[in-house]
Every structure is written in C-alpha cells, then in structure tokens.
Amino acid sequence: MRSKWCRAFPGVAEQVANARHFVAALLDGHGPVDDAVLVVSELAANAVRHSLSGKVGGWFLVVVGFGDDLVRIEVVDEGGERVPHLCDATSQEEGGRGLLMIASCAKDWGVKNWPSGRCVWADLARKGS
Fold it and tell me: What is d(CA 49, CA 43) in angstroms, rounded to the nearest whole number?
C-alpha cells in the first residue's frame, strides 16, 4: 500500500455512519466510493453487533489503504466468540448476508485473527483497474 489512513470509533451503532463518512471522504475521486462505503458499513456494523467492540467502552478501527490498483478497507475489532464467515445465501434468516455482498464486490477479502481481536478486510479495484 502506498498510503494508509486510519481512525478509531467508539463501538456503538451510531458510529457506523461516521465510519462511512470517513471512508467516503477519503475515497472521493480516488476509488470506488460506493463499494467502499458498503464494505465499511457492513464490517463496522458487524464489529459493533457481533464482537466485544459493541460492549461498554468498546471501539473499532477503520483503516483505508491505497495501492496503485487497489483500495483495502479494514475494520479491526476487539474480537469475540463468533468468527466472521459467509452464510448460506438461500437461508430464510433476516440477516447474515453482509459478507456475501462484500465478497461480490471485492477482488478479495479475509479475516486476520489475533489473541486480542481481529481484522476483517476487503480489497476493491480502483477505477480503471
């Protein structure tokens, strides 16, 4: 990555919108804004909803990395019991399709686990790539 920007957010649902604005402002004219906003929205919401980041005093971190042909969106959370995974698209459950949407618009995505948290990331093609 040629450059990276990051910002920490309190682990509350209302901060997901601020994470979207942060990413949209960074990518304006420099990458796939709509896809990046979708990715950060889903990953930040998952961090707040499904990890320790959503507990009192929790936090999540958004990292945006710019490469020559890629933009990497990362959301670092405080971890939890559930491991992010793709759900069955034919399931009748109301939720659970966020990672499927990310997988459909990203060149690649994945999860890095650490003892005290994890990072879920997605690589998006920059315009003209």
Answer: 10
